[in-house]
Amino acid sequence: MTTRxxxxxxxxxxxxxxxxxxxxxxxKATEDALHEQGIECATEVFELRDLAHDITNGLLTGFxxxxxxxxxxxxxxxxxxxxxxxxxxxxxxxxxxSFFDVLEENAVAGKPVLIAATGGTERHTLALEHAIRPMFxxxxxxxxxxxxxxxxxxxxxxxxxxxQQRIERAAGELADLxxxxxxxxxxxxxxxxxxxxxxxxxx
Length: 203
Fold this sequence. Notes:
With 203 residues, this protein is of the alpha/beta class. It has a single domain (2-201), classed as Rossmann fold, CATH 3.40.50. The protein has seven helices and seven strands; from the N terminus they run E-H-E-H-H-E-E-H-E-H-E-E-H-H. Strands 1, 2, 3, 4, 5, 6 and 7 form a seven-stranded mixed beta sheet that branches. It is globular and about 70 Å long.
C-alpha cells in the first residue's frame, strides 16, 4: 500500500492546548481521508513550545541546530503539512512565525499545507486569511482552500458539529493533494555542483 508522510506543527503554549487538540483532530481526519483512497499515512506531531529556545538560537545564529534541525528536516521532507497557531493580537503567535523564519528559502515551496488556528472568539477567524495564508503563499506553499478556525464556543454544543465539518472538508482537500505524489522537493544547490575545471575555463 502507498504511504504518505504528514508533519504537524502546533504553536500552543499551554499543555494541554486547544491548538494541539485541533491539530490532532485535523491529523486524524487527514489520515482517514487518505485511508479511504487506499493510502497509509505516517504522521508526526511537534509542539513548538518544546523547541522555543532552539528556535531563538536558530534565529540568532542563522542555523537550526539540535532538536530543531530534526523537526525542520521532517517539515521539509513531508508529503503534507498541518500548521496550527493560537491567535494573539489578531495574528499568528510569535513562536509560530519564528519557526517558519528559521526555515531556508523554498523549504516548503510546492508543499500541500493545511492552515488552522484557535482563539477565544470567532472575531479572530479572519486572521487565517489576512495573516496566516499570506505567509504561506509568500513561502510558495500550496495552501488548501479551507482553513480551520476553532473558537472556544466551537468545542461544544452546536459549534462542535460545524467545526467537525470544517475539519473533514479541509482534511479531504489536503489528502487529495497529498495523494497526487507529494510536494516538489526544494533543489539542493550541492546536488549538481559545477566541475572545478569549468569554473576555471573562463579565467
